[in-house]
Amino acid sequence: MTSQIKQSTGAISTGFTRTWRYKVGMFLIVAGHVILLIGLVLPVLGMGVAISGAVVLAGEVTALASIVFLGKEGFKAIKAKMVGAVKASYTAPVGRTRHFIGVILLCTNVLTTYAIAAYAWLVFDRITAENPFPEVLGLSFAQQDDLVLWLFLAGEITFVLAIYVLGADWWGRFRRIFIWEAP
Description:
single chain, mainly alpha, 2 domains, 80% helix, flat
């Protein structure tokens, strides 16, 4: 029964990817996300909030318009392609370079965690009743807030990326560290 279901969903996704509806829907998704990214970059370039908000809204509407063309079959086709690509790259054998990059990402996660701990130690050492928000490392309280947020985000993102880059085999080896085996 399951093989029949897999065959029928595979047939739907393969056949549907050749239609004009799928091609228009994919174009709208890609165009909508490109417009969305442009809208998010505009404030950095000095554009007004109203203009960048309108561009972000246009990107969202464009991406949502793809639903009309894709429908259920298109969603299944996109899902099958994306899940297949991610699974294939995650379970693929990991070479020396990829392993080295994954280890660097894990070390970055550890370093950001200790940087946040060291920062907290510095701050708590300098807090007084008269000055509950002291300057630390020459940074104002608002700048310190941004520093901690970006360190935290960098640490979390690098951890997730490291697990993906190191691959499925590494995760199995890591889990075996915590399992005691008799000699």
